[in-house]
Amino acid sequence: QVQLVESGGALVQPGESLRLSCVASGSIDSIDSINLWNWYRQAPGKQRKLVATITKGGSTNYPDSLKGRFIIARDNPNNTVYLQMNSLKPEDTAVYYCNAQRWVTSPGYWGQGTQVTVSS
Question: Which residue, 59, 76, 57, 79, is CA-closest to 2?
Fold first, then answer.
């Protein structure tokens, strides 16, 4: 079992930046078994969508619409995954969730989410 706790969400104005954190805890074997670390977001009334992935090996992937604006990184010694969000837009408003998967076909583990609101 892997437990995930997100933090860093806030209310910001368009154009500002924000960094979200996801701290993972659990057994060493459980955390070591994770191959994919993801950030998802879910806007009100919409389905949850993937916004960033970093693999165990360190490669990253983003939806084309977010490339260059969102950056995912991992601090392995502290079992923390970050999502740096730049040039935020109102459409980025959502609850952001951290997710950890062994494989892409697995639902993996989920955090409770952190609210990001971008509004003027």
Answer: 79
Query: Strand 80-85 to strand 70-75: parallel, antiparallel, or no bridges (unpaired)?
Result: antiparallel
Three-class SS state of 119? coil
The β-bridge partners of 71 are 84
The pLDDT-based confidence of 77 (bands split at 50, 70, 90) is: confident
Q: What is the pLDDT of residue 67?
A: 81
Q: Is 31 helix (H, G, I), strand (E, B) or coil?
A: helix
Q: What is the mean pLDDT of the chain?
A: 96
- Contact status, residue 73 vs residue 52, Cβ threshold 8 Å: no
Q: What is the largest CA-CA distance in the chain?
A: 45
